[in-house]
């Protein structure tokens, strides 16, 4: 079993109030065109015409060689954080493929775990990665653009 972990509300609120992103810049504000801008907090697509934040996100506490940084979107207005009990979020059932890879407790990529998984095989791929005892958690990224989507933890 595993748990899908959206960005914490406190972190998202800080970005909404101008906290610098992974590159030290304030989040940009833009209007969603409705064409696939997934919020990393509610794990839903930001509707067309709604304001959103665009920023560089580094989902690691410290900089280090494996601490990838990339663009993400957030709803500019408050939204409810996705809770794992809500089921698989729409942002993980709408793309054809996802890049998923395991990380150790040291926040380093566990080599041999990275895979581009078709949506239909997503859950099986996650289970296979968690079969390895040296994997502490998994990151899900866009297979097309390498954007961070979410973190998956062991339940």
How does this structure look, described?
The chain has helices spanning 9-16, 122-130; strands spanning 2-5, 28-31, 51-57, 70-75, 97-103, 115-118, 137-142, 148-154. The chain has 155 residues and is mainly beta. The chain has 2 domains: 6-82, no CATH class; 86-154, no CATH class. The strands form 2 sheets. A 5-stranded antiparallel sheet has the order 1-8-7-5-6, with helices on one face. A 3-stranded antiparallel sheet has the order 2-3-4, covered by helices on one side. Strand 7 and strand 8 (148-154) form a beta hairpin. The longest helix is centred in the last third of the chain and has 9 residues, at 122-130.
Question: What is the topology?
Answer:
Blueprint: E1 2-5, H1 9-16, E2 28-31, E3 51-57, E4 70-75, E5 97-103, E6 115-118, H2 122-130, E7 137-142, E8 148-154
Antiparallel strand pairs: 1-8, 2-3, 3-4, 5-6, 5-7, 7-8
């Amino acid at each position: 079993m595993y748990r899908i972990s959206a960005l914490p509300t406190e972190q998202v609120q800080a970005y909404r109030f101008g906290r610098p992103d992974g590159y030290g810049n304030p989040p940009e504000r833009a209007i969603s065109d409705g064409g696939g801008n997934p919020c990393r907090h509610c794990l839903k697509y930001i509707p067309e015409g709604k304001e959103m934040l665009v920023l560089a996100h580094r989902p690691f506490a410290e900089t280090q060689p494996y601490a990838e940084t990339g663009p993400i979107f957030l709803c500019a207005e408050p939204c409810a954080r996705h809770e794992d009990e809500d089921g698989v979020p729409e942002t993980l059932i709408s793309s054809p493929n996802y890049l998923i890879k395991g990380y150790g407790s040291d926040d380093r990529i566990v080599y041999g775990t990275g895979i581009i998984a078709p949506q239909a095989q997503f859950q099986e791929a996650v289970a296979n990665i968690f079969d390895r005892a040296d994997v502490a958690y998994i990151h899900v990224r866009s297979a097309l653009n390498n954007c961070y989507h979410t973190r998956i933890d062991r339940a």
